[in-house]
Write a structure and sequence with these properties.
The protein has 123 residues and is an all-beta fold. The protein has strands at residues 2-5, 8-10, 16-22, 30-37, 44-49, 56-58, 66-71, 76-81, 90-98, 110-113, 117-121. Strands 2, 4, 5, 6, 9, 10 and 11 form a 7-stranded mixed beta sheet that branches. Strands 1-3-8-7 form a 4-stranded antiparallel beta sheet, with no helix packed on it.
Length: 123
Amino acid sequence: LLVETGGGLVQPGGSLRLACAASGGTVNDYAMGWFRQAPGKEREFVVSDNWSGIRTYYADSVKGRFTITRDSAKNTVYLQMNSLKPEDTAVYYCAARSRYSDTYSDYRHYGDWGQGTQVTVSS
């Protein structure tokens, strides 16, 4: 079970940190990813890591602004979002895929999903 927290309303240029807490399993057994979906749009890849957290992959639209990290002791994955833009507004989902999968940007390769958390960037 994955549960996201940390969404909210933020002004352009601001920051938010999303958290994805896992229960019933350990994040160290999985590669983790973050996706987002805006109204009327398809689910979009944001960022992923591999099962060890050493390798990370970012969508071009968030590179240099977003960072994925994980805290094994807390069994939690984080998404630090800086320099937020109105176009970052979406529901953000964390997801887990097999540690043996390198297909990090295709949502169909993720088997477990959180319920999503709303991020709104607006003045």
